[in-house]
Amino acid sequence: MNVDPAELQKFSELAHRWWDPAGSFRPLHEINPLRLDWIDQRAPLAGKRVVDVGCGGGILSEAMSARGADVLGIDLADKPLRVAQLHALESGARVRYRPSSAEDLAREEAGSYDVVTCMELLEHVPDPESTVTACAALARPQGWVFFSTINRNARAFLLAIVGAEYVLRLLPRGTHEYARFIRPSELANAARGAQLEVEEVRGMSYSPLTREYQLGVDARVNYLMACRKNP
Ligand code: SAH
Predict the structure, then answer these.
(1) Residue of the nearest CA to atom 3 in ligand 1?
(2) What value does the mean pLDDT of the chain take?
(3) What's the pLDDT score for residue 208?
(4) Suppose 54 and one of 1, 78, 121, 228 were both cysteines; which one would form an S-S bond, judging by CB atoms 3.0 to 4.6 Å apart?
(5) pLDDT at residue 231 is higher than 80
(6) Which residues, 6 or more positions from 170, have their beta carbon under 8 angstroms from its beta carbon?
(7) Atom of ligand 1 at shortest distance to CA of 32?
(8) Ligand 1 neighbour 2 (Cβ under 6 A)
C-alpha cells in the first residue's frame, strides 16, 4: 500500500490540535480561504460531488461543504479522521468521512467525482505518482483535480524546512522531508501520464513581514496545480 506509517503517526499525534487556529496546523487554517476561493472560482463548488483526499481534520472539506458541495473526506490516519467527524458534529457540517486511500476508493468509485482535491498530501506518500493516478481515476471525464505540494530546490529547503520549522516555527520540526518535495514539472508529468490536462500552476508564498500567505506567480516553494480530466 502507498502509505508511510511514520507519516500517519506524525499526523495522529498532533490531531487533537487540528482545529486550533494558533496550533500546529495554523498554516492550513491561514491558507484555507485562499485555496478555497481558487478552487471555487475554477470549479464552482455548489452542487458538486467532491472527494478530499488526505483530508486530515477536515479544514478544507468543511469549507467546501459550506460552499454547497457534497463532500467525502478520506484519510488513512484514524485520529485526524475522528477529529474531523467530531468537528463536523459540532459545526453541523454535512461532510462524510471514511478511512481510505485514494487508490482503494478509486477501485470502488472510479469516475464518480466532479472535483478531487489532494492538498498537502503528495509530499507525505512513498509513491506520489500512484496517488496522482488514483485522483485522476476518481474524477469524471472533464472533472477537476486540484493538487498542492512543495517544490524541490534550495529555496524550498531554506523556506519550507529551515524557515518554517526552525526559524519561524510555523510548523512542528520534522513535518517535511526535503527528498519528498516535488517539482511542478514532475507533478505535471505524472498528471499528464494519468490523462489529466494541466490548466494552471499557482504559487503560494508566505511573507514573514506581514505574516500572510498569498497566491501569485512565484511557485518556487509552495504551489497549487489545477488539472482537468481528458474526456
Ligand atoms: N489535506 C489536508 C491535510 C493535509 S496534512 C489539508 O490540506 O488541510 C496530510 C494528511 O495526509 C494527514 O491527515 C495524513 O494523515 C494524510 N495522509 C498521509 N499519508 C496518506 C495516505 N497514504 N493516504 C491518505 N492520507 C494520507
Answers:
(1) 56
(2) 97
(3) 87
(4) 121
(5) no
(6) 26, 27, 164, 206
(7) 8
(8) yes
Alpha helices in the chain (DSSP H): 5-14, 26-42, 59-66, 78-91, 102-109, 128-138, 154-156, 184-193
Please tell me if the CB atom of residue 119 comes closer than 6 angstroms to any atom of ligand 1.
yes
pLDDT digits (tens, 9 = 90+) for 123-152: 999 999 999 999 999 999 999 999 999 999
Gap between the Cα atoms of 154 and 100, Å rounded: 34
| CB hemisphere CA count around 166 (13 angstroms) | 9
Please tell me if the CB atom of residue 3 comes closer than 6 angstroms to any atom of ligand 1: yes
CB 204 within 8 A of CB 224: yes
Pairing of strands 113-119, 139-150: parallel
Written as nine digits, the cell of 80 is: 485526524
The DSSP H or E segment spanning 144 is: strand 139-150
Instruction: Confirm or reject: Cβ of 129 under 6 Å from ligand 1.
Output: no
User: Tens digits of per-residue pLDDT, 197-226?
Assistant: 999 999 999 998 999 999 999 999 999 999
Q: Which of 194, 72, 197, 173 is nearest to 128 (CA)?
A: 194
Q: For residues 110 and 1, what is the distance between their CA atoms, to the nearest angstrom? A: 18
The pTM of the full predicted model, rounded to 2 decimals, is 0.98
Domain ranges of the chain: 5-229
How many whole angstroms from 148 Cα to the centroid of ligand 1? 12
Q: 160 Cβ partners below 8 Å, 6+ apart?
A: 150, 176, 181, 221, 222
Q: Give the integer Cα–Cα distance in Å for 41 and 44.
A: 6
DSSP label of 101: -
